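Ticket opened by: R.M.
Priority: normal
Category: complex prediction / small molecule

The reporter submitted a protein together with cobalt (II) ion and asked that the result be attached to this ticket for the collaborator who will pick it up next week. Submitted input follows.
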Amino acid sequence: MSIETPEELEALRAAGRVVAEAIRAMRADVRVGVSTRELDEVGARVFARYRARSGPQLDYGFPGTTCISVNDEAVHGIPGKRRLRDGDLVKLDVTAELDGFYADACASVPVGNVSAECRRLARASRHALHRGMQAAHAGAAINEIGRAVEATVDSYGYSVCRDLAGHGIGRRIHEAPNVPSFRHPAFGQPLTAGLVITIEPIITAGRGEVRESGDGWTLRTRDGSCAAHFEHTIVITDAAPVVLTA
Ligand code: MF3
Ligand code: CO
Ligand code: CO
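Result attached by the on-call engineer:
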C-alpha cells in the first residue's frame, strides 16, 4: 500500500511495534533445547497481548503463528517439536496483522557456538538489508534496492536466493511491487513516497537455489548450505525510509 493519511502511518507503526516486540521476546528465548513450537508460542503470546493476528495464518492458512526456519531451511519453516541444537542458525520471520494493517520482519539468531562462517553469513544478510534500505528513497528505481543488496552480498562471496523477494505490504502480507534482492533488469519503475515495502535478503554460502521440502511449506537450500535472512518493513520517503519494525 501507499500511505495516504497520518492515521494509516500510525496504524502501520503499531503493527510494526508488535512484530519487533515478538521477535525480541522470541530471540530472548533462543537457546539449546528450546523447540521451535515453544518459540512460536512466545510470539503468539505477544500477538495475543495486542490482539494482533498472524499474517501467514490469516492470508495463507500457515500452520503456525510465525515462520521459524533452521540452518538449510531458508524460509517458511513450520514451528514444531524440533529442538534447537548448539551451532544452529535460526530465522525468526514474524508477520502481524493489527486492525487490518500488516508488518513483517525477520532476524537470524545463532544458537550457542555457531561456526564463524555461519555467523558471517548472518552478518552479511543484515548488512545487505541496511545497504538496501539506504538505497530506498523516492525517485530511486526499485532495482536500485536489489543492486545495493546484491553488491553487498557479493562482497562477502555469498549468493542471494533469487526465487525469494521483498514485497509491498500493508493491507495484506504480499502486495505489489515485488522487491528483488538482486539487480533485476525489469524493475526500473521509481519508488514513491508513502509506499510500504519489505526488504529481505535471503542468502546462502552455496548457490542460492531453494526447493520445497515435503511439508508443503518449508523451502530449503538445494545444496544443503546454511541460509540467513533479515527483513524490515519500511515506508519510502524523500530521504531515509521509516523503519516500522525496528
Ligand atoms: N514472512 C514471509 C515473508 O517475508 C511471509 C510468510 S507467509 C507464509 O514474505 F504463509 F508463506 F508463510
Ligand atoms: Co517475513
Ligand atoms: Co516479507
